[in-house]
């Protein structure tokens, strides 16, 4: 039943004989009875309707139910006459809506404190500048600090930024309104002195009404005492009084109620304004307009369409010396119980009857009452440690923090609302300090598209960015322009700084202080609302406080939070935006990069031999590969990690490197012509040609490593952990395509097909094609990939190359155990792969011409270099075809490196579905597949010295396509997972102990999703095992730059372990060539004599040195297999 006073004559709605009046905290008071005869009651009801127009300006509406009634003082229960009732009604409702205009004093208690300095006085000055403060207002500061008015005004000036002369003049006017009184917070004499000062100000005005606003910028410990003193000694004789109270409003339900009980005798509810400054933020206030002012949201704003809601609060800084204060409350009390919960209620509330403060707060309270207390199983907590580079201290290193503190600095939790609209929808709240960025946002994720034609399309999302860069955008699916029906994720974006560039967004405190002057309670917390919120959080807080064995999970300063965070959110239905759409453009440059490698590996060795180098010297030339990889990849990785270019961290280096590669390839193809322009002497020209060719190869190798490092970094940066194997597999596929393309082109007679337009030899045309294709591919990748731009305040970017290399050196020797194990497996594997990649073409060609081609036929050859290249390319074409097929099919047959984390569902081509369905049941994991590939390569290359025909040599090379495909993605997939785990705050395996002593992790199977998700073991809370020792484990700390992404530095380290074995392989090859083929026949006078065969070993009675190198590589592959096997046991 409802009583409405709207200025009309409504029909009778309620009898006054029995009227229940709930109290301020929501519990109903006993019913009161006016004990009047029925006739008198009827007369009173008629009179109430008649006078309603005069009360209409107060616009109040009240539901007499278990919900809160209109804010009547309990003395209404004793009213036994209409006069008393009318007086009470008028008094209570008038105060709640009256705007304070003239003759008002605002008293800032705690005027010398941090809150007054950073928020209160800047907000008051902002209101003054924009002429929103009441006329002739006076601002009185009160604090324990003893100082005169002059010193106080000097402090006030220091609180305000003065960018212009106009603002300086306004600040002078503002300071004339300010005075100061010092005193204690618990002494009557001090507050009597304050009141005397206020009366002196009021007496000068000679006004009938004197309004006072008391702003309590004070610690909670003095709330009750100060509120009592203000009521007893400083309450105005006439006019209105209001008290603004800062959070925290207690530490739990009981302390909150104690505070409320202390306020109730002195201050009425409509006089109290409890500030939660998030309710004053522009985007939070905009939630109601977005929801109820846009009809297209109304139909989908429910459990039938919304899958989950995330509310995130992230700060990039720690406690920074304020840990003692923070430790008393923690992140749950400091942020989640108030800021995030307020946002949740605005998102979930029903449409209010009006925009009046009571109607809005009524709906918010209904939401809170529909929520059960937070369950510990739906919570993870963390505490930040030292940053990975050691530059930022951990929470426990703050001198103001107790050394054994278990206070969480990070928390993620899930809450449910049990009503018709939201039943079953998880509201995921996340808050943390010392994270990787500053951000507060709401992310509403809608359900999957159910239509069969869009099985894997990404979910729609509505994102409300509260701060910084206020914005609202909708992630939606659209058709990619073109002839296909390919979909692409795009955004409908409202960014405030672009759309409303001419408007200033007010500060939250400005908005709330102005609301307090207006008497508008809409954005302030009501007592029953506060009670309901503490009812939700107090059981969890007591559980965490009482169970001393619960230890927050440690995460590095500057990371995204605890490592289990992604698993936690995924277990409640949240799906990361599908990054599979980015896998193709991310890896687009891979095929053309490998085309360049293929050209180099196919033609450069015989090209250098043809120029007159011996095989032993040629082997030394190939130090360029490992040398460039050792220096350039890690160096570029670290530099790119720190790059703040607006174009991204990787793409500028990719583009620059690709142009350098293209230029050097063209120089390599035309070395003889270039040298001939400057040197006419044949002997000097020959030496100059060799020198320029070697220099060009070095330049190509160094610059291609720039491109490769950035391409690999893009994969790790762009794709989440569940897609790391898919991304690496796509890179492997693209690489195989590039190699296949290179070898196919190399195997055909391009001069015969294209003529001499792009070169008169096969080698020249290959360099042109390689240069052009690389530039185009890098351009496509750079245009297609949306790369994150680094914004960091922790790194000044002044580190030079020496410091970067020094940091890399330290990192290499301080690797996490699993990354170290991956690197060792890669080290031994690449000792085997080096001779295969650089000499297999020449080996197949030599085998063919050695055993199968008569000498007369060789004399007829017009381009011996091209002939050897085409024979070798044919074998490598088969090799690349097998590599490509393996890279396409094997990912469907192999489990990802972290099966429990991935939510990726492989969708193979229909023709292979039946076979792969059988293989799914027996498919190995990626580690086992990598181990088998090492053994397969070793078993193949052991037979290299026995090859005496092109067919057998080609067969051996082709079989190696399978292990090469796996080697192309396995180590990078493992590294991608490990890097992302480190970025998010460390390991996540239940078997991994925390860096804090005696800590193990427990799992919970109580997941939101049923069948499909119950296989996920999600870490909830860390518990100290009573059987663990009390000794501290040494905390792993390495000097690695932490910007939230570590791809460059760790992939650089992996590259070190890829390039060092190439030095070993080069040294082994040099020894073998020096012993078995110590010299070569004299070089021809013409460095480009295309019919000469002196540079090949065609003596059937001598050992083929290349086959011996391949055999030694097979032995190394067996060692790599053992290292891969041991990886399984490294934690």
Automatic annotation (TrEMBL):
<comment type="pathway">
    <text>Carbohydrate degradation; pentose phosphate pathway; D-ribulose 5-phosphate from D-glucose 6-phosphate (oxidative stage): step 1/3.</text>
</comment>
<comment type="function">
    <text>Catalyzes the rate-limiting step of the oxidative pentose-phosphate pathway, which represents a route for the dissimilation of carbohydrates besides glycolysis. The main function of this enzyme is to provide reducing power (NADPH) and pentose phosphates for fatty acid and nucleic acid synthesis.</text>
</comment>
<feature type="transmembrane region" description="Helical">
    <location>
        <begin position="1103"/>
        <end position="1121"/>
    </location>
</feature>
<dbReference type="InterPro" id="IPR019796">
    <property type="entry name" value="G6P_DH_AS"/>
</dbReference>
<dbReference type="Pfam" id="PF00479">
    <property type="entry name" value="G6PD_N"/>
</dbReference>
<dbReference type="GO" id="GO:0004345">
    <property type="term" value="F:glucose-6-phosphate dehydrogenase activity"/>
</dbReference>
<feature type="transmembrane region" description="Helical">
    <location>
        <begin position="690"/>
        <end position="715"/>
    </location>
</feature>
<keyword id="KW-0521">NADP</keyword>
<keyword id="KW-0560">Oxidoreductase</keyword>
<dbReference type="InterPro" id="IPR036259">
    <property type="entry name" value="MFS_trans_sf"/>
</dbReference>
<feature type="transmembrane region" description="Helical">
    <location>
        <begin position="871"/>
        <end position="895"/>
    </location>
</feature>
<comment type="similarity">
    <text>Belongs to the glucose-6-phosphate dehydrogenase family.</text>
</comment>
<feature type="transmembrane region" description="Helical">
    <location>
        <begin position="765"/>
        <end position="785"/>
    </location>
</feature>
<dbReference type="GO" id="GO:0005829">
    <property type="term" value="C:cytosol"/>
</dbReference>
<feature type="domain" description="Glucose-6-phosphate dehydrogenase NAD-binding">
    <location>
        <begin position="107"/>
        <end position="286"/>
    </location>
</feature>
<feature type="transmembrane region" description="Helical">
    <location>
        <begin position="736"/>
        <end position="759"/>
    </location>
</feature>
<keyword id="KW-0812">Transmembrane</keyword>
<feature type="transmembrane region" description="Helical">
    <location>
        <begin position="952"/>
        <end position="974"/>
    </location>
</feature>
<keyword id="KW-1133">Transmembrane helix</keyword>
<dbReference type="InterPro" id="IPR022675">
    <property type="entry name" value="G6P_DH_C"/>
</dbReference>
<dbReference type="InterPro" id="IPR001282">
    <property type="entry name" value="G6P_DH"/>
</dbReference>
<feature type="transmembrane region" description="Helical">
    <location>
        <begin position="928"/>
        <end position="946"/>
    </location>
</feature>
<keyword id="KW-0472">Membrane</keyword>
<protein>
    <recommendedName>
        <fullName>Glucose-6-phosphate 1-dehydrogenase</fullName>
        <ecNumber>1.1.1.49</ecNumber>
    </recommendedName>
</protein>
<keyword id="KW-0119">Carbohydrate metabolism</keyword>
<dbReference type="GO" id="GO:0009051">
    <property type="term" value="P:pentose-phosphate shunt, oxidative branch"/>
</dbReference>
<feature type="domain" description="Glucose-6-phosphate dehydrogenase C-terminal">
    <location>
        <begin position="288"/>
        <end position="576"/>
    </location>
</feature>
<feature type="transmembrane region" description="Helical">
    <location>
        <begin position="827"/>
        <end position="851"/>
    </location>
</feature>
<dbReference type="InterPro" id="IPR022674">
    <property type="entry name" value="G6P_DH_NAD-bd"/>
</dbReference>
<dbReference type="Pfam" id="PF02781">
    <property type="entry name" value="G6PD_C"/>
</dbReference>
<dbReference type="GO" id="GO:0050661">
    <property type="term" value="F:NADP binding"/>
</dbReference>
<dbReference type="InterPro" id="IPR036291">
    <property type="entry name" value="NAD(P)-bd_dom_sf"/>
</dbReference>
<dbReference type="Pfam" id="PF13347">
    <property type="entry name" value="MFS_2"/>
</dbReference>
<feature type="transmembrane region" description="Helical">
    <location>
        <begin position="652"/>
        <end position="670"/>
    </location>
</feature>
<dbReference type="GO" id="GO:0006006">
    <property type="term" value="P:glucose metabolic process"/>
</dbReference>
<feature type="transmembrane region" description="Helical">
    <location>
        <begin position="620"/>
        <end position="640"/>
    </location>
</feature>
<keyword id="KW-0313">Glucose metabolism</keyword>
């Amino acid at each position: 039943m409802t009583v409405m006073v709207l200025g009309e004559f409504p029909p009778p709605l309620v009898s006054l004989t029995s009227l229940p009046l709930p109290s301020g905290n929501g519990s109903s008071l006993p019913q009161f009875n006016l004990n009047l005869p029925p006739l008198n009651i009827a007369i009173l009801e008629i009179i109430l309707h008649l006078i309603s127009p005069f009360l209409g300006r107060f616009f109040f509406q009240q539901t007499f139910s278990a919900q809160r009634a209109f804010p009547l003082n309990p003395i209404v229960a004793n009213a036994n006459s209409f006069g008393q009732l009318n007086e009470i009604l008028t008094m209570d409702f008038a105060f709640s809506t009256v705007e304070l205009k003239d003759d008002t004093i605002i008293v800032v208690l705690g005027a010398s404190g941090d809150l007054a300095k950073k928020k209160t006085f800047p907000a008051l000055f902002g209101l003054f500048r924009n002429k929103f403060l009441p006329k002739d207002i006076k601002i009185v500061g009160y604090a324990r600090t003893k100082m005169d008015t002059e010193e106080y005004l000097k402090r006030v000036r220091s609180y305000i930024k003065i960018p212009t002369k106009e603002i300086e003049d306004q600040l002078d006017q503002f300071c004339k309104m300010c005075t100061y009184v010092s005193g204690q917070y618990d002494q009557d004499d001090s507050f009597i002195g304050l009141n005397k000062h206020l009366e002196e100000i009021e007496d000068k005005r000679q006004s009938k009404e004197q309004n006072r606003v008391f702003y309590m910028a004070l610690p909670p410990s003095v709330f009750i005492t100060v509120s009592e003193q203000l009521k007893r000694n400083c309450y105005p004789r006439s006019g209105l009084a209001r008290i603004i109270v800062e959070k925290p409003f207690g530490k739990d339900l009981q302390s909150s109620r104690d505070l409320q009980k202390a306020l109730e005798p002195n201050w009425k509810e409509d006089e109290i304004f409890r500030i939660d400054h998030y309710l004053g933020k522009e985007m939070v206030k905009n939630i109601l307009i977005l929801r109820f002012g846009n009809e297209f949201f109304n139909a989908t704003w429910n459990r039938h369409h919304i899958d989950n809601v995330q509310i995130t609060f992230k700060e990039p800084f720690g406690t920074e010396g304020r840990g003692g204060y923070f430790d008393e409350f923690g992140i749950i009390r400091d942020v989640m119980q108030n800021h995030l919960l307020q946002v949740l209620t605005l998102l979930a509330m029903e449409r209010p009857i009006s925009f009046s403060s009571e109607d809005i707060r009524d709906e918010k309270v209904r939401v809170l009452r529909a929520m059960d207390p937070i369950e510990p199983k739906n919570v993870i907590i963390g505490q930040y440690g030292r940053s990975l580079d050691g530059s930022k201290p951990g929470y426990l290193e703050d001198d103001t923090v107790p050394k054994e503190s278990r206070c969480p600095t990070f928390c993620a939790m899930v809450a449910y609302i049990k009503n018709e609209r939201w039943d079953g929808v998880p509201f995921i709240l996340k808050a943390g300090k010392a994270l990787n960025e500053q951000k507060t946002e709401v992310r509403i994720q809608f359900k999957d598209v159910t239509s069969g034609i869009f099985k894997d399309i990404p979910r729609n999302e509505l994102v409300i960015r509260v701060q910084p860069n206020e914005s609202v955008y909708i992630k939606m699916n659209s058709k990619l322009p073109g002839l296909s029906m390919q979909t692409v994720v795009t955004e409908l974006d409202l960014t405030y700084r672009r759309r409303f560039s001419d408007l200033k967004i007010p500060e939250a405190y400005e908005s709330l202080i102005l609301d307090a002057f207006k008497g508008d309670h809409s954005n302030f917390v009501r007592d029953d609302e506060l009670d309901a919120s503490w009812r939700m959080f107090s059981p969890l807080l007591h559980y965490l406080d009482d169970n001393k064995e619960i230890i927050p999970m440690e995460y590095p300063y500057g990371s995204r939070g605890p490592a289990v965070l992604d698993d936690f959110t995924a277990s409640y239905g949240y799906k990361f935006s599908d990054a599979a759409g980015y896998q193709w453009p991310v890896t687009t440059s891979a095929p053309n990069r490998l085309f360049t490698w293929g050209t180099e590996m196919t033609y450069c060795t015989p090209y250098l031999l043809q120029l007159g180098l011996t095989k032993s010297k040629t082997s030394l030339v190939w130090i360029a590969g490992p040398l460039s990889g050792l220096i350039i990849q890690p160096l570029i990785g670290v530099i790119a990690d720190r790059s703040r270019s607006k174009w991204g961290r990787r793409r500028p280096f990719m583009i620059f490197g690709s142009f350098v590669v293209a230029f050097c390839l063209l120089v390599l193809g035309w070395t003889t012509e270039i040298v001939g322009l400057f040197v006419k002497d044949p002997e000097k020209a020959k030496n100059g040609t060799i020198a320029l060719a070697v220099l060009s190869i070095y330049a190509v190798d160094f610059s291609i490593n720039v491109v490769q490092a950035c391409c690999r970094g893009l994969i790790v940066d762009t794709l989440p952990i569940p897609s790391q194997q898919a991304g690496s597999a796509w890179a492997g596929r693209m690489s195989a395509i590039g190699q296949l393309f290179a070898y196919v082109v190399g195997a055909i007679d391009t001069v015969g097909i294209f003529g001499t337009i792009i070169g008169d030899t096969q080698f020249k045309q290959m360099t042109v094609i390689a240069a052009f294709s690389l530039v185009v591919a890098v351009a496509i990748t750079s245009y297609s990939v949306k790369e994150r731009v680094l914004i960091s305040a922790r790194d000044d970017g002044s580190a030079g190359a020496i410091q970067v290399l020094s940091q890399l050196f330290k990192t290499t020797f301080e690797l996490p155990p699993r990354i170290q194990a991956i690197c060792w497996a890669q080290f031994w594997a690449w000792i085997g792969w080096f001779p295969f990649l650089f000499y297999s073409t020449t080996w197949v060609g030599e085998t063919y011409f050695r055993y199968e081609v008569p000498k007369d036929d060789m004399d007829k050859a017009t381009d011996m270099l091209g002939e050897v290249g085409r024979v070798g390319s044919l074998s490598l074409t088969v090799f690349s075809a097998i590599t490509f097929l393996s890279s396409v099919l094997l990912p469907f047959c192999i489990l990802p490196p972290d099966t429990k984390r991935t939510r990726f569902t492989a969708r193979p081509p229909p023709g292979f579905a039946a076979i792969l369905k059988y293989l799914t049941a027996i498919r190995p994991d990626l580690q086992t597949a990598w181990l088998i590939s090492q053994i397969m390569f070793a078993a193949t290359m052991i037979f290299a010295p026995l090859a005496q025909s092109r067919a057998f040599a080609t067969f051996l090379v082709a079989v190696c396509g399978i292990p090469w495909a796996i080697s192309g993605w396995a180590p990078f997939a493992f590294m991608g997972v490990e890097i992302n785990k480190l970025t998010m705050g460390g390991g996540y395996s239940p078997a991994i102990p925390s860096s804090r002593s005696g800590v193990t992790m427990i799992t919970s199977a109580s997941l939101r999703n049923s069948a499909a998700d119950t296989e996920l073991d999600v870490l909830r809370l860390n518990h100290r095992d009573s059987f663990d020792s009390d000794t501290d484990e040494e905390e792993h700390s390495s000097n690695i730059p932490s910007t939230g992404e570590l791809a460059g530095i760790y992939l650089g380290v992996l590259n070190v372990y890829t390039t060092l074995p190439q030095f070993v392989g080069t040294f082994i090859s040099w020894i073998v060539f020096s012993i078995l083929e110590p010299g070569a026949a004299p070089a021809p006078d013409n460095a480009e004599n295309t019919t000469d065969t002196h540079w090949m070993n065609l003596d059937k009675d001598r050992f083929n040195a290349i086959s011996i190198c391949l055999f030694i590589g097979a032995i190394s592959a067996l060692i790599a297999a053992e290292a891969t096997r041991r990886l399984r046991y490294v934690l």
